[in-house]
Amino acid sequence: MNLTQAQLAKYMDHTLLKASATADQIDAVVAEAIKYGTASVCVNPYWVPRVSKALAGFGVATCTVIGFPLGASTTETKVFETRDAIAKGADEIDMVINIGELKAGNDDVVRNDIRAVADATHEGGKLLKVIIETALLTDEEKTRASKLTVEGNADYVKTSTGFSTAGATAPDVALMRKAVGPDFGVKAAGGIHTLADAYAMIEAGATRLGVSASVAILEEAARQ
Predict the structure, then answer these.
(1) Would you say residue 1 lies in a domain?
(2) How far apart are CA 150 and CA 49, in angstroms?
(3) Choice among 126, 129, 142, 158 that is catalytic
(4) Is 94 marked active-site?
(5) Is 140 domain-assigned?
(6) Which residue among 88, 126, 129, 187 is the active-site one?
(7) How many domains are contained in the chain?
(8) Is 158 a catalytic residue?
(9) Candidates 94, 113, 172, 197; catalytic one
(10) Does residue 5 form part of some domain?
(11) Are residues 62 and 94 in contact, defined by beta-carbon separation less than 8 angstroms?
């Protein structure tokens, strides 16, 4: 695989989700996203108004996270968070599923949780990605969670928060791609640090990458 720097940038959600992130650090990530033309900047909900304002007119989306990072908020809370984030400028919503309910086999609960957030997201004309936290799941659970994401009317299924025991792997991305079919979005996130990592995820079926090391990867791409 050999993408140009600009092509690769369009796969990337340039991400800063650390609890310790300061306004200056958020602003730096925004400036990098504008410079390189990434798909989005992904931040915690508090920073959405600042990021959305700074990105206006640059063609870079504002992405935020909901029920993050554990997924165990109530559905009502996730819906409120989603509507609030959209009202304040979010273009894309990355929600975490209820992982415990998935593992217990309560698929209806998981599907309804996703659907409620999907409805709130789509009412605002925005995009929903659903984080299933692959590091905590068996292959059967990863497949089931991916299918529930489709059934819940989301737009993407996403591997990881980046805050659990491990991040994305190419085999997990391939498994998820197989589960959702060829036309559904798949986002790989967590542990993508090099150009080789990024290419491996794309080749496995990822259509979006959640990356904090975006600049290093894109600079590496420019040297190819």
Answers:
(1) no
(2) 29
(3) 158
(4) yes
(5) yes
(6) 187
(7) 1
(8) yes
(9) 94
(10) no
(11) no
